[in-house]
């Protein structure tokens, strides 16, 4: 056996075991007619991840304490993300640190959070944030 084949089997075995526990391998049609796209994240692992972890996604607005500019983003861990912004790990915010969290909203899915982030980055969303005093 080639070592890389052994490694791949080692990585996929736990996922297949969890999928079979939830019946996703035995009953692939139980996905309400949703088809997976080759090359995408498997639906079964997404379902498994979201049902077990109950992750919430946060849309946030940061304000530069020195420059006064603002930044809008989304994350599943707001504390960790704020530390990353203030430590210079994010290229787009590195030059204007330190940052202060001025607004946040929580969502059940990443898609909802991304849609809200996109809205805040639009002209009308910017006007709304400005009218609320966040930018």
The geometry reads as globular
Count of discrete domains:
2
Order of helices and strands: HHEEHEHH
Supply Rg. Answer: 20 Å
State the strand order across the main sheet.
2-1-3
Q: Tell me the name of the CATH homologous superfamily of the largest domain.
A: GIY-YIG endonuclease
Q: What does this entry look like structurally?
A:
- The chain has helices spanning 3-21, 43-53, 78-87, 110-121, 123-131, and strands at 57-64, 70-75, 99-107.
- By secondary structure, the chain is α+β, with helices and mostly antiparallel strands.
- The chain has two domains: 1-25 and 43-54, no CATH class; 57-131, 3-Layer(aba) Sandwich (GIY-YIG endonuclease), CATH 3.40.1440.
- A three-stranded antiparallel beta sheet has the order 2-1-3.
- The longest helix is centred in the first third of the chain and has 19 residues, at 3-21.
- The N and C termini lie far apart (59 Å).
- The relative contact order is 0.12.
- Residues 1-12 and 17-33 have low confidence and may be disordered.
Could you name the key traits of this structure?
GIY-YIG endonuclease, disordered N terminus, three-stranded antiparallel β-sheet, globular, about 45% helix, about 140 residues, alpha+beta, single chain, 2 domains
